[in-house]
Amino acid sequence: MSLPIILLVLFALLLVALLAWALRPPARPVKQALDVFEALSRPRHCSRISHVMQALQPEDTEYLRETEQVAVMRTLRQQRRRIALNYLDQLREEFEELLEISRMLAVMSPQVTGMQELERWKLSMTFAANCAFLRWKLRLRLQTFSGFVLLSNMAADIARQLEMATARIAEAAVRGSEPPTPGNEILGGL
Amino acid sequence: MVEPLQLQAAAWALTTTLELALFVQLVRRTLARIYPLFFTYIVAVIFQSIAVAVLYRNIHLDKVTVWKVAWATQGLAVLMRSLALVELNRSVLSRYVGIWALASRFFLSVAGAVIAYALALSKGEWQWLILNGIRGLELAMAAVIVTMLIFARYYRVPINQLQRALAVGLCLYSSFYVINYSLLERIVQQYAVLWNFLGIFAFIASLLVWISAVNWYAESEEVALPPAISQELHGKLSAEVNSRLYLLNRQLIQLLHLKDRSQ
Asked: What's the ipTM?
């Protein structure tokens, strides 16, 4: 059997596997439409980045070494690292929530751009990789500030994109005189 | 011991019975109106079963004619299945205008690429072109169904049990057809009867999935979609959207003024 035929058979088998995967129920429950706006209006964790960064600065606890309180310094740094890890989890959750919202907005929007969707997908992949990298760096007690800023910027970027998408939907909603399209019906004829 | 040909004949009889049962159920549950192309596909498949049975019983016809007519009916069935698939994809995604526009381009690209690859295997030999074309079309159908399901999963588009069953049945049959045909073509010619039987078995499995879904189909499934939101919620959403619009507009004006000042 030639290689192209083997590839064909493997592709068919892959499709069966993907079919089984695609039919699995989603891990997270589907959000209601109101949650989108509620989630968008919530304060962002990325706005607290400066505090976390400050807490991670070695200079912030260096005075304890000078006053010969090394044990206290170590405990403090450990606690702050734990807080940073917790912050990272919150940031990831927020990012996932924003992605979820962006998907919901895509469902409600009468126009979805493939490039934007692809960009968002790439962004989510990069974010996941950076998040894992940063977590390990924190655990190994390596320098992390640049990573935090990068992740924070990514989350802010997604939030900005979402605001624009919300504005577009709202704009379409305000144009009430236009004949309703099936996409507008999703919002109950907004 | 049961002869393979007897087994195959029994499988054919069972297939035709199940096809007729599905036909009756689709009419009885008025689903023929909701999925007219799928219904037409089932009619085409019943027609194919009858045509092939008549052809094989007619001993006066030469083998080439029988082969050509049999493949013509197969071509018709595949064409109708493709149309049923388009109908299914439309029924799942078309109400979400933006998603549908993006997904339909995706489907065309995926289907085009798969068919082109399958046709390229013919290497310009016309006698293989039709067979490879049908194989390519089957694989493209399976690929499009999976793409549609991934889209639906990613965007959390709801799919009712019947749509799910239609997708599973169509995809499994198409995938099995490609695997069956690809292996049969190259290495297991001597087991042709067995492989033919397995092909029928795959279709029987699809038919059972469809019959079960049609039996369990409830009209309320069609209503239970997220777009259906209450009047109160609608009012809240309207107010929220409008306030965000004004807010964003104000921010935009502020940004514009900021830019003016900086210039």
From this structure: 0.70
